Amino acid sequence: MSTQATVAGVQVDLRHWIGGERVASAETFEDVSPIDETVLAHVHSGGPGEIDRAVTAARSAFAAWASMPIGERAAILHRVADGIDARAEDLAQVETADNGALLRSHRRGVMPRVAMNFRHFADHLQTLGRPDGSIRGHRQRVTYDPAGVVAIITPWNAPLMLATWRIGPALAAGNTVVLKPPEWAPLTASLFADIAHEAGLPAGVLNVVQGTGVEAGAPLTAHPDINRLAFTGSVPTAGVISRAAAANIVPLSYELGGKSPLVVFADADFDLAVGLAVEQFDNSGQVCLGAFRILVEETIAYSFVEEVTRRTRDIVQGDPRDEKTDMSCLITRSHFEKVDGFVSRALEAGAKALVGGGPNAELGGLYYQPTVLVDAEPGSEILTEEVFGPVLTIQTFRTEEQAISMANDTRFGLAATLVTGDPVRAERVSSALVAGTVWVNCFFVRDLGAPFGGSGRSGIGREGGDWSFEFYSDIKNTVFSPEGWRTDTSTTGEHHG
């Protein structure tokens, strides 16, 4: 059984990383590139045994990592970030081959952000906390104590960036981690384990167990020695995880699906609004934050739809390794068929495709055309369920009140985007939108110090800045009495409080 694979010219270890060493499994799973549906590697597939070994290693490493002075801990995390920068091209090449996202995006945005995830939380750690307070003459101190072992399960659409968005603060807070990367795109997690080891992260502090949700994910979420569980993925899977974790009363942080609106008023900057709409085709629409429900004021709807249609037709679809490509492929054959099923049912129900509406027959494979749909029936599946593909729907509204009602008419609440030229309206409407993040006249601007998470079925909790440390820590309040100290220790040599 092979333990190595060469992917995009980069050597990748296919075994798990547990307790500071490579661990093989008897079983493997195929990792297929969505670019051409060829097999990249046979990755070692973990199960309950590997999971238990990883959790045990994380538990054993916890005390020393948690007690390490924060300056030393932060310095190691900065070295991890340096290692990511040094291997950014390798990471970009491998992840493009593995999940089909644009190479230029991995180079220019994603991998720099991966490094930033560690630098930001390493620095934030050193400013965390608050001055001691007082209550009725007593001194009161609030501290952030590491919680223990953190289980992190991540998705395939941005596997390394979304993994390190959780790993960074979890490690900075003094916890140890067991990561289960996505089976559809696991390879950069293995490279990351090498980078962290080379940066001096102690053995057992980070563990990576590859495998399917059933074989590896299920025993991880149900493990009795897990203290925190962070998951990014679908609502149905979150339900399964919740039931598994409930038996052990494990706190959860979920970032789940979305069906976000893009609300465009007639007073908006027209070119900006059109550009933001077409930008939603990024990563072939496989973005949880994407604003795929376009709501446009009726008076500008004709011109808006015409221009969005024209610009969508200009999108260059093809090989993600080509700098000229704007949009690539979907992740797997099963996901491709799921997206096509949504569109086919919408068309059968009366929706109209102004652009696209099906597979890209010219490219074949997993390439699905960027699609713009109109005339979908209110309340229909295409308007209410997360498609997670390159499919925009456009609806119209007449009044501000109607726009707000339509925008909030969803079980989800991850994000919303608002485009208007009226600053008073911007304040009023953004306050009324139900979403974890609202962007006004912009999109996808994210500060690592700001709270991030979803409302409704889009998630539980918030992460970023202090919010991350609040989740990955046991927050302790200690109150000191000004009286009652015994200073005479001549008899016992003890000091009582």
List the helices and strands and how they pair.
Layout: E1 4-7, E2 10-13, E3 16-18, E4 21-23, E5 27-32, E6 39-45, H1 48-67, H2 70-86, H3 88-99, H4 103-125, E7 133-135, E8 138-146, E9 149-153, H5 159-172, E10 176-180, H6 187-198, E11 206-208, H7 213-221, E12 228-232, H8 235-246, E13 252-255, E14 261-264, H9 270-279, E15 293-297, H10 301-313, H11 333-348, E16 352-355, E17 371-374, H12 381-384, E18 391-397, H13 400-407, E19 412-413, E20 415-419, H14 423-432, E21 437-440, E22 455-456, E23 459-460, H15 465-471, E24 473-480
Parallel strand pairs: 9-10, 9-12, 10-11, 12-13, 14-15, 14-20, 15-18, 17-18, 20-21
Antiparallel strand pairs: 1-2, 3-4, 5-6, 7-8, 8-24, 13-23, 16-17, 19-22
Helix pairs in contact: 1-7, 2-4, 2-6, 3-4, 3-6, 4-5, 9-10
Report how far the terminal alpha carbons are from each other.
61 Å
β-strand percent reads 15-25%
Overall pLDDT, averaged?
96
Strand order of the largest sheet: 16-17-18-15-14-20-21
At CATH level 2, the architecture of the largest domain is 3-Layer(aba) Sandwich
The profile of the biggest β sheet is: 7 strands, mixed
The CATH superfamily of the largest domain turns out to be Aldehyde Dehydrogenase, Chain A, domain 1
- Runs in which pLDDT lies below 50 for 5 or more consecutive residues are 489-497
Report the helical percentage.
25-40%
Q: What's the level 1 CATH class of the largest domain?
A: Alpha Beta
Q: What is the β-strand count?
A: 24
The CATH topology of the largest domain is given as Aldehyde Dehydrogenase, Chain A, domain 1
Whole-number radius of gyration? Answer: 24 Å
How many DSSP helices? Answer: 15
* Structural class by helix and strand composition: alpha/beta
Number of domains: 2
